Amino acid sequence: MRYDPENNVFWWRQSSFNTFMACPEKLRTRPLVEIPSDAAALGTALHAVIEKDLTVGLDMDGLQVAAYAALEELWNEGVRQVQHGFNTSFAILQNCVFAWAKAEPRENLLRAHYADRLTVEESFDWKVGDVGGTEVRIEGRIDAVEQPSRSSRGIVWDWKTSGRQYETWEHQRWGIQPSFYTLATGIRDFHYLVFIKRVTQEPEVQIVKVTRSEAHWNWLVQQLLAATSYVLSVGFDRPWLTNDHSALCSPKWCPNWDGCKGVHLGPDPW
Fold first, then answer.
1. How many C-alpha atoms does 185 have within 13 Å on its Cβ side?
2. pLDDT value at residue 45
3. Residue 200 vs residue 75, higher pLDDT
4. Structural domain tally of the chain?
5. Does residue 251 lie within any of the structural domains?
6. What's 196's domain CATH number?
7. Which of 128, 155, 171, 206 gets the highest tally of CB atoms within 10 A of its CB?
8. What one-character DSSP code corresponds to residue 267?
9. How far apart are CA 46 and CA 104, in angstroms?
């Protein structure tokens, strides 16, 4: 989320809008620079490996070298250890890379790359409407976009790491990211490629298929305009609404706990 008051332009990213919908005050008070957790660093490293593979093509040795280099760079920059240290994180990353090398979508995506039908790390900046003279836009970067062909109407791809299987119905019903990215590209099919993390064995690889329609896009735009109106009317200096009806409202997962609910309940309320 960012706002340019001089030019009256307001941007939303899917991650910031997700946070806003979960707890507006958490978004307002989030640190400008966040130190990534070990789980976030692992996901970022895997993204870097897949991006490189789909751009230049890598054999198994190349995948492993790219994985170590990506994770090492992130840890050297600083990682907040929540679950795993570097060695365990790299073991999980290695398993994810092995799984990626054998995953069915990899071959199809490489084929699309060589046919010039694949864009990797595609940026977008898309106007969705206006609120009281302020232009509202969405922006972001998509992991991969497989352009339409004779046999496919196109697919928007996103890579995920997770500790458990995704529930397809949850993402079809409520997923914000699929709505953002399909609206920006005009491609209605959105697929998550989920690596379910394992320390001592290859992860299960799950493809979660979500479809969006113009009705979904219209609903997203209505939500975006309403959220923008709220933020602009309240301003950035006064507290926003809070939502503590979530497991994420805790000392472990919310960086603003000590300045919010923690003021009343203390650092360890459970």
1. 30
2. 97
3. 75
4. 1
5. no
6. 3.90.320.10
7. 155
8. S
9. 17
